[in-house]
Design brief:
Elements lengths: L13 E7 L3 E4 L2 E3 L6 H12 L3 E7 L10 E5 L2 H11 L5 E4 L6 E3 L20 E3 L3 H8 L5 E8 L4 H15 L3 E6 L10 E8 L4 E8 H14 L2
Parallel strand pairs: 1-4, 1-6, 4-5, 6-9, 9-10
Antiparallel strand pairs: 2-3, 7-8, 10-11, 11-12
Bound molecules: cytidine-5'-triphosphate (CTP) and calcium ion.
Cytidine-5'-triphosphate binds next to helix 3 and strand 9.
Cofactor: Mg(2+); FMN
Protein name: Coenzyme A biosynthesis bifunctional protein CoaBC
Family: In the N-terminal section; belongs to the HFCD (homo-oligomeric flavin containing Cys decarboxylase) superfamily.
Length: 227
């Protein structure tokens, strides 16, 4: 229904969406990752396509099929995501960073499977911080681009979620931050979502609740309304 009713208001615009979650290998068979399915980011790509945009979808370990009509670039790690974003960002009028990005990667990747040690029952991993892609593209933007970040937080209520969101958007330098609450049982693999969108001033510009596709359309409405 969303698709049938879509307005074609993004014809001539290019939208770059990152979706999914990056994974950092420890050895040939293991990784450090997160529970992002990619559904909300894929829904943003789908909504933008329906509205006539040219869509580039950078997918990190997507658990759902990308929409027809997007140019898809597949990545695994945060460094690969960074390279793909750097290669594609110049043409984008809107960048939506929905991907859940691994903040750290192992300082070294073991060339063979890590074996259990016989002399210790603990294992220490040493991690190196990954680059902050959203902050970099927000800082380096050359022109009038709209940049949207996402933050999934385990805050207990909207007030603390908003406080955290305000601090985060000022650190990132993006134009909008889409906030949602996540937990052991809410958020990730589900088909629905509830979000609050804030701007650089930290003001609440809107909220949305419903299917991830309807939430995606609402996010596009809010961020393009500000143009
Ligand atoms: N992000 C990014 N590069 C990173 C980490 C995050 O581009 N290395 C982006 C995400 O895609 C998302 C936004 O930044 O759009 C917020 O991610 P989040 O993990 O909430 O922010 P962090 O600054 O990593 O803060 P936290 O300590 O809460 O994880
Ligand atoms: Ca993070």
């Amino acid at each position: 229904l969303d698709i049938v009713m879509s307005k074609r208001d993004l014809v001539g615009r290019t939208v770059l969406v990152t979706a999914g979650g990056t994974r950092e290998p420890l050895d040939p068979v293991r990784f450090i990752g997160n529970r992002s399915s990619g559904k909300q980011g894929v829904a943003v790509a789908e909504a933008a396509i329906a509205r006539g945009a040219t869509v580039i979808l950078i997918g990190a370990n997507l658990e759902v099929a990308p929409p027809l009509g997007a140019r898809v670039v597949e990545v695994g790690t945060t460094l690969e995501l960074q390279m793909a974003v750097d290669a594609e960002v110049a043409t984008a009028d809107l960048v939506v960073m929905a991907a859940a990005v691994a903040d750290y990667r192992p300082t070294e990747i073991a060339p063979t499977k890590i074996k259990k040690s016989s002399d210790s029952n603990t294992l220490e991993l040493r991690l190196q911080e990954n680059p902050d892609i959203l902050r970099q593209i927000s800082t380096n933007r050359a022109r009038d681009q709209v940049i949207v970040g996402f933050a999934a937080e385990t805050e207990p209520d909207d007030e603390t979620l908003l406080q955290l969101g305000r601090a985060k958007i000022s650190r990132k330098g993006c134009d909008f931050l889409v906030l949602n609450r996540v937990g052991w049982t809410e958020g990730f693999a589900s088909d629905g979502n509830t979000v609050i969108v804030i701007d650089t001033a930290g003001d609440r510009v809107g909220e949305a609740s419903g299917s991830k596709l309807s939430v995606a359309h609402r996010i596009l409405d809010l961020v393009f309304a500000a143009r």
